[in-house]
Amino acid sequence: MVDLSPALIYIDELVAAGEDARAFRRAARAGHFIRIRRGVYVARAEWDAASERERHIARTRAVFSQLRTGSPALAAGYSAAALHGVPVRRRWPEHVTLLMPYRGGGTAEPGVVRTSARWDERHSALVRGVPSTCLERTLFDVVLLDGFANGVATLDAALRSGATAKDALRDFLEEWSPASGAARCAAALGFADAASESFGESLARAIMHALGFVAPVLQHEFRDGDGSMLVDFCWPQLGIAAEFDGKMKYTRDEFSRGDPAEVVWREKRREDRLRRHVRTVVRIVWDDLLDPRRLARLLEEAGVPRSRQRYVHLDTASRVSFGA
Question: Is there a domain that residue 314 lies in?
């Protein structure tokens, strides 16, 4: 079923149905409705309850509802990622990205970015009722937008969900062979791994790689009398384990069951068990990913070696812009 929340309200349709458009606009000025595009509104209650991704999808649907019939435009970049349910590192933007064939110049439009970069009509798909770039193209566009580490985290999430597979992505990239950005996409795909259990874990792993550290074993299993434990990152021969601690497990009810203190206690007991198998347990949090120098210090202090010279600048930004 296509998720159409928050629902779009069109002034033209209200008028056609005999509603009082002026009364509706007064209600909007009073704060009961939010205008997301000229002539298009959503109920404030639905807007307030929507996630940033759902709000971006609503903006995207509003833009496409006003395009000329037969327009070759596709939702692309972050707009396509939102439609496909692909997680990205950046915040969902307020503008909608349209990919369309080059026709000798374009027009500026509030809330819309138009591009013809790497246009290919074969890369289209209908997603949530909106013409969009297909999943494979969308994933590689995110890599080009967000850089190696962030792109790997997005690729991992898609692979982990089962929405696509490495072979399918590899075949797509080989057939597409973009004039710019192919090496970046191939590098991110080669490193992608569905074994990372969260976006944060994937990002941490990619940053470790960019910093030149020896690659860890993912989801390494330890067993004791209390059962099995899977560790996010492990260097078994070095006796080092590392865990990514996102706030989610302490704040969301499905993890905390309404008692964050109990989660902290369970994690402490688990770490005590781990320390019977390894000499060091490294705790990685989001702040360590926001400043990779902190992550480097943690790993160095734990004794994780580097397999090669670290990059001078961590590759977290795009070298190939979507509009290039």
Answer: no
